Amino acid sequence: MATEAETGTGTGEPALTVDELAARAGVTVRTVRFYSSRGLLPPPELGPRRVGRYGPGHLSRLALIEELQHQGLTLAAIERYLNRLPEGLSAHDLAIHRALVASWMPDEAEDTSREELERRAGRALTEDDVDRLAAMNILEPDGSGDGFRVDPGLLHLGVRLLDVPIAPEAILAARTVLLEHARAAARELSRLFRDEVETRTPDIAAMKSLSAHMQPLVIQALVTAFQRSLNEELRAAYGGAERG
């Protein structure tokens, strides 16, 4: 059963029809229905006249499923991955999972027009909106004057963050911090993998095989560690103020 956090119902945000969900996600309605039939996508909430309505959690889960497919996982493997996720994950939590999964893959930005970008975003975008999305490294102008290179999997999360009152400079600073620590973690993990392989056999194929098997575990560990650490920092910073 999908939770309120995942479906996005009760948040005051407009619910999406299956056609709108497919358009925002950049997939076909047939794909949405197929994933639903396999149990990979939670069922929609039923609105007036029993029309299915989808929320931000459906959009984030759909992006995660698509990214896992790009990784080469089978539907059975994707189902196992999703079943291991904690219950009640919010759309933001799912977006974090998708971002970490995508971090193991080469960049696969898509070329899109301003009209298509706004259709995928589900809203008109001001120049300030475009600048903020660029600061989040979600898109960049392609030089044509009306086209963009866009990360489709992160676009919907970036659009939701447009309404968060934070300056583009702060977004850029946060991105710098995250990249610095992510690269440091990647270097250390690569060293650990390399040392583990070399203690047995200096084989490049073995190194790649170990890395491939470890990636899902590492992704899960990074997500869990980040979420717990962030919650601890927020409690330490604001817990006393709330009690007061």
Helix amount, in percent?
55-70%
Order of strands across the main sheet: 3-5-4
On the 0-100 scale, what is the average pLDDT?
77
CA radius of gyration: 20 Å
Strand content: 5-15%
- The SS-based structural class is mainly alpha
Head-to-tail CA distance between termini: 37 Å
Low-confidence stretches: 1-12
Order of helices and strands: HHHEEHHHEHHEEHHH
Largest sheet: 3 strands, antiparallel
Write up what this structure looks like.
Keywords: DNA-binding. This is MerR family transcriptional regulator. Helix content is 64%, strand content 6%. It has helices at residues 4-7, 18-25, 29-37, 56-70, 75-83, 91-102, 114-121, 127-135, 152-161, 168-198, 204-243; strands spanning 45-46, 52-53, 110-113, 139-141, 147-150. A hairpin with a 5-residue loop joins strand 4 (139-141) and strand 5 (147-150). The longest helix is centred in the last third of the chain and has 40 residues, at 204-243. The chain is globular and about 60 Å long. The protein starts with a helix and ends with a helix.
